[in-house]
Design goal:
By secondary structure, the protein is an all-alpha fold. The protein is built from 26 helices and no strands.
Length: 587
Amino acid sequence: MLEPNPLVILVLGMLTVLGLIIFARLNAFLALIIAALLVSFLAAGNVAEKVGRVASAFGTNAGNIGIVIALASIIGKCMLDSGAADRIVRAFTSALGEKRAPLALMGSGFVLAIPVFFDTVFYLLVPLARSLFKRTNKNYLRYLIAIGAGGAITHTLVPPTPGPLLIAANLGVDPGMMIMMGLVVAIVPATLGLVFGAWIDRVMPVPMRPIGAQVEIPSLSDAQLPSLWLSLLPVALPVLLISTNTVLKVYADAEPTAVLRAEDVQFDKLQTQLSAQLASSEPTPGKVIVAAWPEELRSSLDAGHVLTQAQEAAMLAELNKLLKSKKFYNDELFFGISLNPVAKSLDKKAIERLGQADLMRLNRALLESLFPSAIAEHVWETPRRQAADWSSLFGNANLALLISALIAMGTMAATRNLSRVDVAVAVEDSLMSGGVIILITAAGGAFGEMLKVAKVGQEIEKMCAGVGSGSSAGLMLLLLAFGVAAVFKVAQGSTTVSMITTSGMLASLASVEILGFHPVYLATAIGCGGLMGSWMNDSGFWVFAKMGGLTEAEALKSWTILLVIMSLAGLAVTLILATLLPLKGAA
């Protein structure tokens, strides 16, 4: 059967998602699963596997992000119920003063939206905006904009919020790196959001209106709230643990343990063994190794030729180039070859997502397996690596958030004097809301995986081959990623669906070799694109309008324009950082 062009499959998949969500009004989970099945049917492969691979991709993605999202839901619920979130907001306001109340509200939204979903954060902070307006009788819209700016930007850029978390997983970006660079990119858009809020409040002052039949709930006294350090702990602890792990891992990865040195290689034995593989009539790993070598160097492998010192140095340089290749390992070529324990332990099915240090470790281990008498085994477990391994235990997002969830649960139980049954009910409520997010994000991940099966990424890579080389080509890809995510967001309304779909499409391009800089910038470009164009098909639009007491026209003139400004500002910051701080060595 004739296989459609990958770009045709991409367009059909996108139209399916958009049509089912916008016109058929299907839940995003169903729309994404149906689109994933369609793409899988159109892509190459055994007919019997076309449904199974969608289910397998769904399970893999759910496994990658399910625990983290569930724990983040628990943390958010417990922080709200215990008053911890309220304590954080009051601390910001008290520290900055009433005149800087917009900055306090923005900072509160900025921090709280890291573990808590945007609509929950907005719902939490709106009563404070209303309370401030009652005291000052001015700046109501400015307060709302400040809350929205802080909450929206970290919601799209900083894990463990589902969107940026799954972007990081799809693109193979370390969660700690995503947290750090997401926060860096978010600062400028959030600041511009404050500036825009002050301007739009002067141009279009909005009165504070009653919200339906809602009764204003009296605030708790300071004495009833948990302490500030205990309130911040569920937010700060996972960020600290995950970021520390990232720093130690980058420090360990900078140590060139896998790089071949002259004393690691017995060149005469390597020459003999390579020559034997080249003489074989079958495909061999040796033929792949020397394929890109200069002709003069290949000819030096002839039996009986004595290698010169210069030829040995050239051979060593070519082998070290090979260590960075993602195309060295092939199941068929290595079939029947006994791999050493290091090569066996690394996931060779996930080579595209391996960082450079792990990739070099794998390729060095493969060379050691191929030529055990010619290439010495390298030492991986250095003191730096051992420190990074221990930090990886506690800096794993799953364990870090589990610890934070237990702290948040304990704080809620102690503050509200709840029984174990009451705590269990609160946790169950949070897991029910988190389960929906898990289903949608995993379905979006499956859709993205099927686009990879259909070789959409390779087709886009071919299209972008002529735009330049190195960072110039990478910057064009950032613009492409931003544009695709923005189109998805404007068309179907969901920021999360937009981000996970776009990251799945472009996952095969997420490497330093293609981009010329760290793929975390591809992730932030997608996140900024997902922020663009919130209007009537976006739940965030209605949360802002209805909870704030604004008309649809007022929300379009304020909220929609706010997100356009922040989206473009985030893209600009991403482009500047990718140019000035490429972070190639941290990939």
